[in-house]
Amino acid sequence: MLIAISMMILVIPVMAKPPTYEITYYQTQFQWRGYNEAFGDWTAYPEGGDHTDVRLTEDVLHCWMEYTPNVWGKPRGMSHIYVNDGNDHWTLHDGKMSYRYDKLYGPYRAVNYFRGYMEFSGTPSTSTFVRGALYQWIYVMEPQNEPVDDEISGAVFCPVMKAWLVGFSVYIQDPQKPTTPHTLDFPGPLTAFPRPVPANNDNPLDL
Q1: Is residue 9 included in any domain, yes or no?
Q2: Can you say how many angstroms the Cα of residue 163 is from the centroid of all Cα atoms in its chain?
Q3: Which of 82, 97, 120, 194 could hold 61 in an S-S bridge, CB 3.0 to 4.6 Å?
Q4: Which pLDDT belongs to residue 3?
């Protein structure tokens, strides 16, 4: 008797990660840094080409941030998350990065908070990019009774964050180079200065 043996082979699909790609735009940066600059000294850098590396997973846009020049001390939190609110508006929900830079900050970590948004006219891509704004706060987690280095004499201690504010930036992102350069006043004084915590507003300056 011939006995037929049937074998079933289960094919288990391997779920590949969505590809990473670039979204390019023109970016204007407004910046204050406490490196011998008084709180509120505001510098504008003209529009220049820039990009963000992203990976789209359903309604979540994963982005990666890099520093130039590179920072020290194993940066933490370089992947950030934008979440779609259902109207082509993507809000940055997870924006925090920290690192060590012993040259200026000694043994204390610098913590960068990011807030902001991106808008698209469809699935996120360079061709559908409409606008964006990104806010960056830089705090050195050093106690108030240990003043920061003389090279960052413009730093101010923030009692809310319980840390030294050493920098603040606003990045305005456009799909094409603006015909009229952006202008932006520094959002001071310290008593009225926007803070990243609690994060109840992704666009505090209504950009």
Answers
A1: no
A2: 19
A3: 82
A4: 38
Is 13 domain-assigned? no
Count of structural domains, the chain: 1
Per-residue pLDDT at 50: 85
Kindly report, residue by residue over 141-194, the tens digit of the pLDDT.
Answer: 999 998 788 888 899 999 888 999 999 999 999 999 998 999 999 998 888 899
- Going by C-alpha positions, the residue among 143, 62, 52, 67 that lies closest to residue 100 is 67
Domain that residue 63 falls in:
21-177
Note whether residue 85 is domain-resident.
yes
Structural domain includes residue 194: no
Nearest to 32 by CA among 180, 150, 135: 135
Q: Bridge-partner residues for 168, per DSSP? A: 32, 137
Tens of pLDDT, residues 78-102: 678 999 988 899 999 878 888 888 8
Task: Name 140's Cβ contacts closer than 8 Å, sequence gap at least 6.
Answer: 105, 108, 109, 110, 111, 148, 152, 155, 163, 164, 166
